[in-house]
Amino acid sequence: MPLDLADLGWNARLDDAFAAHRASGLFAGRVVLEHTHIYRVATMEGEVLARVSGRLRHEARSRADFPTVGDWVAMEPADRDGDPRIVVLLPRHSRFSRRAAGDPTEEQVLAANIDTVFLVGGLDGDFNPRRIERYLLVASESGAAPVIVLNKADAAADPEALAASVRALAGPVPVHVVSCHRPETLEVLRPYLGPGQTGALLGSSGVGKSTIVNRLVGHDLLRTQDVRASDSRGRHTSTARQLVRLPGTGVLIDTPGMRELQLWEAGEGGVATFDDIDALAADCRFRDCRHQQEPACAVRAAMASGALSPGRLDGFHKLRAEQAHQSRQLDQRALLDERRRAKTANRALQKRLDEKRRG
User: Residue 256: which of 216, 219, 203, 220 has the closest Cα?
Assistant: First the structure.
């Protein structure tokens, strides 16, 4: 069925980036589902299955250079016996990344070209403000606008009190309390999902992301499961990232639940996430105060007076330690890569010198 790419988020910026590829006979599409080595892509002619071209695979420097859900791509038509080939990834204006499982120096892009990232937490027995804080930190680095969604308001005795604790750490980021058992409460999310806008739902398993998608779509499009009654933790219902078109509005990306979100990078966004601590730090005696054992530390004084919660400062210290550890690992990876490139270049040079002597 033919599609209007503008409904999927196509705009003038993308049209300019695609102009040279159009002149080369390529056609545009957006990745809506990622399988193993194959992608479902929405195009003007409808959805097609596509594979990555050999050239793109060869030129990809890392896992992050391969397509992911939400990416806009340029493709060459299928030959007689094959699928269309994804030749180029168009520039991403945002991306939500984490450290790849099993490789602390590899970036995994979870979703791309997002306008609004909905950070979903549950107000049931698995409520965890520190986890929301971590999602907020990574979202601030994505290039998308974060919005916190506290689902399962019906499961909490005082949902507004819990929401207040989240607003205290969220700063200017909007916080909405909703319940999928009351679909009308989800209407506060629709203004973020206007025509051509892309939202993404991120959060742990069991917080109700797929149910939110189903309520916004208007029917049970995605499979859901109940959470365990013992600890309110969910099973991984969504097993793959998927882009869903909402009737008459924008698109929404659902992602599998993540029990642990490993940071990839946290630069200025990390600072913004703890701007309350940074504001207090301006009154510390030492400019490089680490807020641990230093004398006249305004941050620890605020904690002692009750103006700053111990959990907030603990989260700050854990983040800084994780950032330092990640930076060291990336530096080590860069050093090993440089040594590997130098070794390869030396072998090539020696081979040419040997050939020249023999010739």
Answer: 203
pTM score: 0.72
Buried b (16+ CB within 10 A) or exposed e, 166-175: bbebbeebeb
Instruction: Show pLDDT as tens, one digit a residue, over the chain (359 residues).
Output: 678 999 999 999 999 999 999 999 999 999 999 887 899 999 999 999 999 999 999 998 888 899 999 999 999 998 777 889 999 999 999 988 876 655 555 778 889 999 999 999 999 887 888 888 888 877 877 889 999 999 999 999 999 999 998 998 888 899 999 999 999 999 999 999 999 999 999 888 889 998 999 999 887 776 555 444 444 444 444 457 889 999 888 999 988 755 555 544 544 444 446 778 888 888 998 888 989 888 999 998 998 998 888 877 877 887 777 666 556 665 565 566 677 777 777 787 787 877 777 76
**Integer Cα distance of 224 and 238 in angstroms:** 8
Listed residue (14, 146, 21) closest to 93, CA to CA: 14
Cβ distance 152 to 124 under 8 Å? yes
Helices 129-140 and 159-170 sit at what angle, rounded to 10 degrees?
40
Residue 7 amino acid letter: D
Which residues fall within 8 angstroms of residue 79, CB to CB, at 6 or more apart?
none
Give me the torsion for CA of 306, 151, 96, 147, rounded to 10°: -70
Q: What is the CA angle 54-55-56, rounded to 5?
A: 95
* Alpha-carbon gap, residue 264 to 62, rounded angstroms: 14
Return d(Cα 219, Cα 207) in angstroms, integer.
Answer: 19
